[in-house]
C-alpha cells in the first residue's frame, strides 16, 4: 500500500534515517513500499526528553527509525512505561500505555509512536493545568 505525503514548503522529514527537506513549493511524495517516515513535528531531539511521557515517546521513536537496533531501546521503554503507569490513574492514558506496549511487542512501531504521542499530549495538558493553578491564571 502506497503512502502519500503532502509537504509544506521547506518541511523536513526523516526517510529511513535520512533527513529530507521539501523545496520552496508544496510537494507530494508517494512512497510505493514500506519505509520509516517521520515528519519534523513528530521528531523529538534527545535534549527534549525532559518529562516522563517524553521518556516513553523517545525510545519508541528510536525503535521506529532504527528498527534493526530496536532491542537496545526496549529495556528503557519498559522501565519508563511501568513508572508512568504507576503514577497515573487515568484509565484512557493507562490504555494508551498498554496499547503502546502491545504495538512495540508486535513491532508496529509507528502505531506505538502514535499511542505515545497521546500520552505526551495528556501530560502536557496536565502540566499546563497544574502550572496555571500554581500561578493563579485559571479563571474560576
If you had to describe this structure to a student in words, what would you say it looks like?
It is a single chain. This protein has 140 residues and is of the alpha+beta class. The chain folds into 2 domains: 3-41; 44-135. 52% of the residues lie in helices and 15% in strands. It contains 4 helices and 5 strands. The strands form 2 sheets. It has a 3-stranded antiparallel beta sheet with strand order 3-2-5, with no helix packed on it. Strands 1-4 form a two-stranded antiparallel sheet. α1 packs antiparallel against α2 (71-87) and α1 runs antiparallel to α4. The protein is globular and about 45 Å long. The model has no long low-confidence stretch (mean pLDDT 90).
Strand content bin: 15-25%
**Alpha-beta classification:** alpha+beta
Strand tally: 5
Instruction: Indicate the radius of gyration in whole angstroms.
Output: 17 Å
Total tally of structural domains: 2
What is the helix/strand order? EEEEEHHHH
Calculate the terminal CA-CA distance, rounded to whole Å.
Answer: 50 Å
Q: Based on Cα principal axes, name the global outline.
A: globular
Number of helices: 4
Q: What percent of residues adopt helix (DSSP H or I)? A: 40-55%
Point out poorly predicted stretches. none
Brief characterization of the structure:
This protein has helices spanning 52-65, 71-87, 91-105, 109-135, and strands at 3-7, 12-15, 18-21, 27-31, 37-39. The chain is an alpha+beta fold and 140 residues long. The model has no long low-confidence stretch (mean pLDDT 90).
Amino acid at each position: 500500500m502506497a503512502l502519500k505525503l503532502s509537504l509544506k514548503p521547506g518541511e523536513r522529514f526523516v526517510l529511513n534515517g535520512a533527513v529530507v527537506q521539501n523545496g520552496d513549493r508544496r510537494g507530494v511524495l508517494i512512497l510505493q513500499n514500506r519505509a520509516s517516515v517521520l515528519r519534523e513535528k513528530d521528531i523529538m531531539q534527545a535534549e527534549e526528553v525532559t518529562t516522563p511521557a517524553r521518556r516513553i515517546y523517545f525510545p519508541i521513536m528510536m525503535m521506529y527509525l532504527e528498527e534493526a537496533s530496536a532491542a537496545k531501546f526496549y529495556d528503557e521503554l519498559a522501565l519508563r512505561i511501568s513508572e508512568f503507569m504507576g503514577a497515573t490513574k487515568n484509565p484512557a492514558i493507562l490504555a494508551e500505555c498498554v496499547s503502546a506496549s502491545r504495538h512495540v511487542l508486535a513491532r508496529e512501531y509507528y502505531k506505538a509512536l502514535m499511542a505515545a504521542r497521546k500520552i505526551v499530549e495528556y501530560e502536557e495538558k496536565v502540566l499546563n493545568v497544574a502550572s496555571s493553578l500554581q500561578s493563579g491564571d485559571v479563571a474560576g
